[in-house]
Design goal:
Chain A is of the alpha+beta class. The first copy, chain A, has seven helices and four strands. In chain A, helix 4 runs antiparallel to helix 5 and helix 4 packs parallel to helix 6. The radius of gyration of chain A is 17 Å and the shape is globular. Chain A starts with a strand and ends in a 7-residue tail after the last helix.
Chain lengths: ~210, ~210
């Protein structure tokens, strides 16, 4: 098994933290996105979508989405359960994770990819070139600001996003907040539940990865 | 348990077909999106995202994303396995489903919501009003056309998208193709594998729902 990673990108970090929390050892290959290694023939042969992370399994199957990597590893290594233990928890964690991905990561991607100079002509991941759309950058920024304003209510008094246990919903929210901070977008100053939660999850050894 | 549905929208159909394939009976409530019932106080109290489908569980939990509804029901009713039986299948099905959702449904949503008269001022689902972005409609149309051109290779010689068994990857691809047809976008005429697959899955009783 081989994990194709990139230390500077947010998506692979979602998989890295999961792998660390499960306590799994996987051979890791660093892919240099800055020099465009993900767009080269050798890498596109593994993943036609030209994105990281990728988990290559023993039989050659390449999983090229974070959720698929999570589902595979969770089925092979059920403990600790990071995607919910009971059916209700599995549903609730999947729901929270999906909303954080759609409302948070998709909004950040809209903002970043349609405004940053380095993404000119590359407004979507993948091999096809798409021009930046300035109005979409603006919409993405509005959306991520609205999302960050709602994190305090999302977390509330609970130790973790989904309740008493650390799950993929915490992984996604942590990675998203650090990604947003890179563009100077932060949790509101009075988001005390969210800040308490953020400090706790950031202190876990997996968060340093 | 109660399922909040809308017969005319593509997302709830993804859950409806899944429920039918599992052979589960669930009390269903029709939500009239055309008259804006999903934006009214009573419904937003169940689902702040103001979208269908919603699955309300016995304990009051409301799952408001199709994937969460699938994961909950799959954990309670594992047979037939619609999300993969083995760990590798679970990973592969999750991967295919994610790519169909991102490359297919997201592209259709970009196209539809940013061009149709009926979505003026409602370019994203949810309670917040966002203006349509014409350039995003155009990009969405290009993306969905590219996606449809690739379905033949995605299906290939296999009976189903993920291999020998019908899964959520088939559900999503079927619903997507019918959704695209509604806007006069179709599989290429020479997509023989895709058309053979489409005819087979469309003939299943669940597809009539």
């Amino acid at each position: 098994m081989r994990f194709y990673d990139c230390k500077t990108a947010p998506s692979p970090r979602r998989a890295r933290i999961f792998i660390a929390e499960k306590g799994i050892e996987i051979e890791t290959v660093e892919v240099d996105l800055r020099s465009g290694e993900h767009l080269k023939e050798e890498f596109v042969a593994l993943n036609a979508h030209a994105t990281v992370p990728v988990l290559q399994l023993e039989d050659g199957t390449c999983l090229s989405s974070t959720t698929a990597i999570w589902h595979y590893l969770d089925a092979v290594h059920p403990d600790p359960p990071l995607m919910g233990a009971s059916p209700i928890e599995r549903g609730r964690v999947a729901d929270l994770q999906w909303h954080i991905e759609m409302g948070g990561f998709m909004a950040m991607a809209e903002y970043m990819r349609n405004s940053a100079q380095g993404f000119k002509g590359r407004a979507l991941t993948g091999p096809v070139k798409y021009d930046q759309i300035p109005a979409l950058a603006e919409r993405g920024k509005q959306r991520i600001e609205r999302f960050l304003a709602e994190v305090d209510d999302l977390v509330g008094e609970k130790p973790f996003v989904a309740g008493d246990a650390f799950t993929v919903a915490d992984i996604d929210l942590l990675v998203l907040i650090d990604f947003a901070a890179w563009r100077k977008l932060a949790l509101p100053a009075d988001a005390t539940h969210a800040r308490r939660w953020y400090d706790a999850v950031s202190a876990r050894p997996s968060a340093a990865l």
